[in-house]
């Protein structure tokens, strides 16, 4: 059994996904969100979450390099569920500096540049998204 809401109760391991989501909504209220990159698994979680809680928070990170199909799916998902997907973007100045210094395909040049690119385009926006959450 969990000692506080920040420790996961081991009994959750045997629950169905819907039951775990329901537990999360009840435990964390409006301080829980579904993070989505709009893959197949994410779409299933979004469907479950919105059916349990029509006001479920859903967020995504737009790295600035997403395919058009992802934007189309974000729009379709928002329309279907009547919810707004919270989108977090990389810092404009950091991204511009990165591109000026290393070019648009820096992540192919070295592991270090790939990590730098991910830090600017993914890690920092994720940190901003998580500031108002206790669980995701």
Cα(first) to Cα(last) distance is: 20 Å
Main β-sheet, in a few words?
Answer: 3 strands, parallel
Helix content: 40-55%
Give unreliable regions as ranges: none
Tell me the series of helices and strands, N- to C-terminal.
HEHEHEHH
- Strand arrangement within the widest β-sheet reads 1-2-3
Characterise this structure.
It is a single chain. By secondary structure, the protein is mostly helical. It contains five helices and three strands. It has a three-stranded parallel beta sheet with strand order 1-2-3. Helix 1 packs across helix 2. The chain is elongated. The model has no long low-confidence stretch (mean pLDDT 93).
Summarize the topology.
Elements: H1 17-28, E1 33-35, H2 40-52, E2 57-61, H3 68-81, E3 86-88, H4 92-102, H5 111-130
Parallel strand pairs: 1-2, 2-3
